[in-house]
Amino acid sequence: MAITTEATRGESSATRATRDWAVTAGRAATPASPSRLEWKVATVVEVRQETSRARTLVLDVPAWPGHRAGQHVDVRLVSEDGYQAQRSYSIASAPEDAQVALTVERLEDGEVSPYLCDVLGPGDGLEVRGPIGGYFVWDDAAQRGPLLLVAGGSGIVPLMAMLRHHALIDASARAATPVRLLYSARTLDDVIYRAELERLGEAPDVDVVLTVTRGAPPTWGGYRRRIDRDMLDAVGWPVATAPHVYVCGPTALVESVATLLVEVGHAASRVRTERFGATT
After folding, report:
1. Per-residue pLDDT tens digits for 85-132
2. What structural domains does the chain harbor?
3. SS3 label, residue 10
């Protein structure tokens, strides 16, 4: 999931779609000042196709300091003529993992995502810096109690890091932190990590609920609409339980869900949001 976008200069979408990026291999990253995060050349060690448009890159990052569930990294690409493009992608892997997993959704007219999804492969280098972020993170030790995760599209990525982390903490901590996930996708084929989510949902302290907004098969017995108040009432935790809430996805979904949660009585301070638009 890309959550920010930056480039050193503007250019047309036609140019973006056809630009050839140089594969980073053994090239030293630009030195950083002591007060800034350092760019590092990570190595792609595995590639997993999650859906027809989403791909996970598993990276070996030298001297990786570890991360918290919900954080992200910056990724930088540099072309042969020196043009640079930078994006931020949420980390999908659990903090317990030694390697860093990024899940990228491909956009047809994108500048960066087609390269990450179609070209980059095992053994290639990729410049990254991070981890970044301290607000949209879940700390199991400090944030016990019910946990509600609401995702739209590739907004599932940072929430997946939280779910994976939850699965690895000790049994008493899991029991003290039951989780409910409500995940909205266009179709069942667009559900990222679908098989793993089904497996995680088998745990007694985890509930996974999907809703599809278009093209649901006749055999689908779940929700078939956008997330609304009735759905949140049915899936979410009662206000009296004071759950910690994390909402991530497109801006319209995030704003709608956060507003509904506060309107029914959830404390705004306990509803953390991360939103994104169409990035490339």
Report:
1. 999 999 999 999 999 999 999 988 889 999 999 999 999 999 999 999
2. 2-132 (2.40.30.10), 147-276 (3.40.50.80)
3. coil
